[in-house]
């Protein structure tokens, strides 16, 4: 006959001991869960960066010169942009710009875009050290290589500079000075920088004008330098910055802003995270700088 008596006290204690989770096994399980969560967050971050769906502006912080040699540029463009000839024509001509920072041993990064063979336009504040003179060396990444180039025009007030890079080939882009409305569909293309990793990724995002938004000195939350520049622009009658939807991120200053037909309507220069906006230099100002410096006869 089978024994139907329950386990004695010693057997019961042994059974309970076996059911208790081992501390090492518990720790391993917790570690695995944490690692999984971190991996998921990392995947989401990479997908966000590569998809180009993040917002785009001011140059990233200067990084140590030691990181310079490890710089990697990812030039892939979104499929939807590649399939649209007008958008692709502008996006493929965006370039990265690197130069020595004002502080010793530092490097600044930013975006620029080729408007014709060997001619790159970008925001002047991307290379702040160039204020001492226009013959300042910079590095431009184009055609899958980084080449040495030089600044040939530097307008600090209008925040526009022109770089000559003879090795960079490009189609001539068209500019449009037309008045923009809130119904206009615009695009921003350029690069996002992960300076700590020494990497840059191409991005593209949609935006739209905010005609009623004005960047006023008394409401500008920025450093004193930008504040004084805006005031001086008003005093000299320089065309004001134009507002765009969506706040930008560091590194995208100098990115072209263009319409569905691939016409340049401005260049990204300022972000306003408080109001979730960005600001661009209008095409009229870009053309003024190009003509004033005899750089190129831009088609309209």
SSE order and pairing:
Blueprint: H1 9-19, H2 23-51, E1 63-64, E2 72-74, H3 79-82, H4 85-91, E3 94-100, E4 106-116, E5 119-122, E6 137-142, E7 145-155, E8 160-164, E9 186-194, E10 199-207, H5 224-236, E11 242-245, E12 256-259, E13 264-272, E14 277-282, H6 283-292
Parallel strand pairs: 2-10
Antiparallel strand pairs: 1-4, 3-4, 3-6, 4-5, 5-8, 6-7, 7-8, 9-10, 9-12, 11-14, 12-13, 13-14
The main sheet comes to: 7 strands, mixed
Please tell me the overall pLDDT: 78
Q: Beta fraction of the residues?
A: 25-35%
Strand order of the largest sheet: 2-10-9-12-13-14-11
Q: From the coordinates shown, what is the CATH architecture? A: Beta Barrel
CA-based shape: globular
- Overall structural class, as computed from helix and strand content, comes to alpha+beta
Number of strands: 14
CA(first)-CA(last) distance = 103 Å
What name does CATH use for the topology? Thrombin, subunit H
Relative helix content:
10-25%
Low-confidence stretches: 1-7, 43-68
The figure for the number of domains is 1
- Alpha-carbon Rg, integer: 26 Å
Tally of contiguous helical segments: 6
Q: SSE order, as H and E?
A: HHEEHHEEEEEEEEHEEEEH
């Amino acid at each position: 006959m089978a024994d139907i008596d329950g386990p004695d006290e010693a057997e019961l204690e042994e059974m309970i001991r076996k059911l208790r989770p081992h501390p090492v096994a518990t720790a391993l399980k917790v570690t695995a869960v944490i690692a999984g969560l971190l991996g998921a967050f990392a995947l989401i971050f990479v997908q966000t960066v590569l998809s180009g769906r993040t917002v785009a502006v001011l140059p990233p912080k200067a990084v140590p010169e030691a990181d310079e040699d490890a710089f990697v540029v990812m030039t892939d463009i979104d499929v939807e942009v590649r399939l649209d000839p007008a958008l692709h024509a502008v996006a493929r001509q965006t370039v990265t710009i690197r130069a020595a920072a004002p502080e010793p041993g530092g490097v600044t990064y930013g975006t620029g875009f080729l408007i014709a063979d060997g001619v790159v336009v970008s925001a002047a504040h991307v290379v702040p050290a160039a204020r001492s003179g226009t013959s300042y060396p910079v590095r431009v990444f184009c055609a899958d290589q980084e080449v040495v180039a030089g600044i040939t025009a530097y307008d600090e007030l209008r925040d526009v500079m022109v770089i000559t890079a003879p090795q960079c080939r490009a189609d001539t882009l068209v500019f449009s000075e037309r008045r923009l409305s809130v119904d206009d569909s615009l695009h921003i293309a350029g690069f996002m920088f992960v300076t700590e990793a020494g990497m840059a990724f191409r991005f593209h995002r949609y935006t739209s004008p905010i005609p009623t938004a004005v960047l006023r000195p008394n409401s500008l939350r920025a450093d004193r330098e930008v504040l004084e520049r805006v005031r001086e622009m008003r005093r000299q009658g320089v065309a004001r910055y134009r507002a765009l939807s969506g706040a930008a991120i560091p590194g995208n200053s100098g990115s072209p802003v263009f319409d569905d037909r691939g016409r340049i309507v401005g260049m990204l220069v300022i972000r306003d995270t408080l109001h979730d906006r960005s600001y661009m230099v209008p095409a009229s100002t870009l053309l003024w700088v190009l003509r004033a410096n005899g750089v190129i006869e831009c088609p309209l």
